[in-house]
Amino acid sequence: MKLLRWMFSMAVLSGLVACQTPTQPFTTLSGLRYADFDTVVDGVENELYVLTNASGMEVCITNYGARIVSIMVPDRTGTLQDVVLGFDSIADYLNYPNNFGATIGRYANRIAKGRFELDGKTIQLPLNDKGNTLHGGPNGWYTRMFRGEQTDSSTVTLNLVSLDGDENFPGTVKASVTYTVTPDNGLLISYQATTDQKTIINMTNHSYFNLSGDPSRPVTDQLLYVNADRFTPIDSLAIPNGEPVAVAGTPMDFTVAKPIDSALVRTDYEAIRNGIGIDHNYLLNAPGDMNTVAASLFSPTSGIKMEVFTDEPGLQVYSGNYLDGTQIGKKGIPYAYRTAMCLESQHFPDSPNHPEWPSVVLEPGETYQSQCLYRFSVEP
Question: Rounded to two decimals, what is the model's pTM?
Fold first, then answer.
């Protein structure tokens, strides 16, 4: 990796104007400096991996939590914009608890009371969200150092071994996430995992998107489409509390693209109140179909559109309800209330306690596999 980085740096430096000095730090298109991510955490060397395609798209990934740090794509004027939230350095990721751009495991989303039954045994997980377990617990995979290998200019794979008893989950799990920048300005995320004991698994990516390219600007005017006729209702702790509900006739209906704010203003609707906005799992109309659009987001400001494809049965849609301006992100910009959207491919929240829903159980000898593609384009 360091050799590839050196060769790439030399190629860039050779094309710079004469006033560029060799002592200046090499930076990415998004303004990130390699030096700000070059350290050792928990005995693992941290890196900043840069993925590109021939169209000029750039994605930056780091080991800590196998995270997306930046995504640069062109707007309607051809200007590259960074469309995800994150930090300028590994120090900020370590110092300020967050899940910006992180790989989530072992179990994405919530498990009620952190408790579930597996083969007649009650598993109790540590609690980290109002008496429940969220995103694998307080030391979930978003806090772990993955070991990365960049195979070419567009692909990197990050690996993690999660030992038996990690956050009290059974079984030693070997997991990987591969990021690939595609020729048509997509970012394909491929997950794999195996286990030596029966366990549960549900992986996703927790990127916060603001397609305007201006993370100080609310996303409430951006147009959201979700290819789902039903969603799972939640209680005030964001735990599913009933059978899936039809979106038709409710503020949760995004089967036709409309501004996000059209739902957020409907605080008279219980689901919006309980989610403090949108924070719900949608049951996709084409589960398992990577060729059908699961959702899309469009910024009328920048013209950038993002389509989501996944082979998962569900999609968590979250409207940045807990962003409050206390986290200072890239370029010193505070991340304020509802300045980002998350579209997280997944199995349903609390599935271990709902045997009637698609199973999240992984057996020895099986391989967990999941994919999600975020594809970017421009509209007038």
Answer: 0.93
